[in-house]
Amino acid sequence: MLNFGMNWWLLWATALLLRKRARLWVLCGGAAFGAACAFVGLVVPLTLTRELILKGVVAATMVAFCFRPNTWWALITQTAIFVALSAFSAGLTYAAALSSTGGDGWPLVHWYLVAASPLLATLPLKRLWSSLAACFRATDAAGRFRFRLGGAIVELEAALDTGNTLLEPLTYRPVVVVDTALAAEQLPPPLRGAVERWQEDDATQLMPLPDSLMCKVTLIPYTTVAASGLMLAIRPDSCEVESRGIWYTFEAVVAFAVGDVRLAGKGALLPQALWPLS
Fold first, then answer.
1. Shortest CA distance to 120 belongs to which of 255, 3, 206, 13?
2. Distance (Å, rounded) from C-alpha 2 to C-alpha 194?
3. What are the φ and ψ backbone dihedral angles of 45, each rounded to 5 degrees?
């Protein structure tokens, strides 16, 4: 049961790092599979090489079952993150056990150390992963993005951002993040005022919006290296992106970047799933 709990926490932490959504029963199934394989490894004598191979195969199987990577490279990357988190948690557990003995005798690994180490390791690694991911974001691919809302057309310069993995919590639509200062000039006046008030942290003033706009307003949770919070967003009537002279239509949610954030010199950041040439 202790191994099952450890596996569950590690899978949950990996999902948090990858911003993946996994059902509870899926995480429990993956954790149970890992615990069963760990029991087999204790019963059947294995050499060190075979034990390492077995653990690698088991880790890859757990990741594939829980997160459904669509390519081999995605499977390798996600498995590496899971293994790194496991190693970090094991090291944290062992260090805590060593500190409890004061250097005298063998360290005692208590159950609460095993249960707490993945949770303690999650937040620092999440911050580190966000920092590393920002270094590899692709913003060289560019085009034009526009969305229609109640007769108004907002058109901005767009760039591909592989680090944008945001999804709307209700519909799971991908999110296009736009520069608030550039987009506000082209928005309908009621929505423009609501966006400006949201930027001033005055969320109570959203109510004056007309019903035709209020039913399309949503909130997008975000996490960056610097902060986390909620972005005001809208479900537009239509979205289009232009690439090489061709306009592609898709469904998405448009979120307004908070604060004075500048989006790499572009007006909109599109996720990989919406880029027409990906």
1. 13
2. 50
3. -70, 130
Angle, to 10 degrees, between the axis of helix 2-18 and the axis of helix 48-67?
A: 60
How many residues are there in the chain? 278
Kind of pairing, strands 175-178 and 238-243?
Answer: unpaired
Higher pLDDT, 231 or 207: 231
Domains along the chain with CATH numbers: 2-135 (no CATH), 142-274 (2.40.70)
pLDDT single digits (tens) 64-84: 888 888 788 888 888 888 888
Query: Tens digits of per-residue pLDDT, 143-181?
Result: 788 999 878 889 988 887 766 778 888 888 889 999 888
Distance CA(119)–CA(108), nearest Å, equals: 20
Distances (CA, A) of 155 to 147, 148, 187, 274: 7, 9, 10, 16
- Can you give the pTM of this predicted structure? 0.52
For the chain, percent of residues with pLDDT exceeding 70: 69
pLDDT at 184 over 50: yes
Mean pLDDT of 230-249: 86
Tell me, rounded to whole angstroms, the distance of Cα 267 from its chain centroid. 22
Question: Of 210, 213, 147, 214, which is closest to residue 177 (Cα–Cα)?
Answer: 147
Asked if pLDDT for residue 39 goes beyond 60, the answer is yes
Residue with the two structure tokens 């690694």:
125
Contacts of 33 (CB under 8 A, 6+ apart): 58, 61, 62, 65
Report whether 82 contacts 62 (CB < 8 A): yes
Cβ distance 237 to 149 under 8 Å?
Answer: yes
Q: Pull the structure tokens for residue 139.
A: 């913003």
